[in-house]
Structure formats: C-alpha cells, structure tokens
Amino acid sequence: MKVRDVMTPHPITVSPETSVPEAMQLMQTHGFRRLPVVEGGELVGIVTDRDLKEALPSSATTLSIWEMNHLLSRLQVAEVMSEQVITVKAQTELVQAAELMLTHKIGGLPVVSSLGHVIGIITVTEVLRAFVEQQHAAD
What is the pLDDT of residues 65-114, one digit of tens each? Predict the structure, then answer.
C-alpha cells in the first residue's frame, strides 16, 4: 500500500505570515493538529498545535487580556514553525511512512510532489485506519 492510498489530499495550509491566533482557529475548527506552512507554492515549514500552545503566554503573566491578545495577534506562524520538515512522496510505501513517524516521534508527514508542493498529508490515524481495514479484509 502506498501513501497516496490513505493520505488526505489537498490539506489546508498556512503562510508564514499567518497569525498564531488564525492558525489556532483553523486547527480548532477543522480538528487538525498540524498545518503545513507554504510560501510561493513550496513547503517551508510545519506548525503543530504544540508549537502554538508553547507560544502562548504563561498563566502567571502580569499582562492584561488585552495586552496578551494584542501581542498574540502580531505573532506570526514563521516565528513558531519548524523549518526542518520530514516529508514523503505519494508513491512512498505506507510502512516506510510509518517507520519515519516512529523514528522521529511525529504524528504526521506532509506529502510533497517532486517540485516540493504539498499535495497531501498523512497522519498516524490514517496509518492505523489502513492497518485495521487490512486486518478486517483478511478475516
């Protein structure tokens, strides 16, 4: 089985200039935990829910809610994203994608074309779903 058989095609992406609150809202609205960051059609990073949560001020802050919201609205994804992104191609074997996620302890991989354009995303959930479906088909 190949990555293309189970990936989510055409994932929602953000630009490096997207604000942190906007990225958080996208994740909450759609139930994502990661967003590929794209500039000029090419993958330049990935931002996870963990990256965004770590960017939030501590609850022990002395800032007012208005000050916090103002500062957060100016914080961009580029400032909190990971630039070193592990990716796979659509024709990659699913087991290889699973091994990459295990080795690097990550929950998902952007799927890129030969030109570096994001064409999909594959997550641990999709890998597990494929495994379960294969087991049921074999029974």
Answer: 556 665 566 789 999 999 999 999 999 999 999 999 999 999 999 999 99
Angle between helices 124-138 and 94-104 (to 10 degrees): 140
How far is the C-alpha of 21 from the C-alpha of 87, rounded, in Å? 26
Fold category of 3-138 in CATH: CBS-domain (3.10.580)
Residue 4 is predicted with a pLDDT of 96
The token duo for 8 is 């989510």
Residue 12: closest CA among 1, 4, 25: 25
The pLDDT value recorded for residue 10 is: 94
Give the integer Cα–Cα distance in Å for 20 and 74.
8
As a whole number of angstroms, the distance between CA 127 and CA 139 comes to: 19
- 120 or 137, which is more confident? 120
CB contact at 8 A, 134 and 1: yes
Q: Which two tokens stand for residue 101?
A: 């996620």
| Euclidean distance between CA atoms 11 and 3, whole angstroms | 14
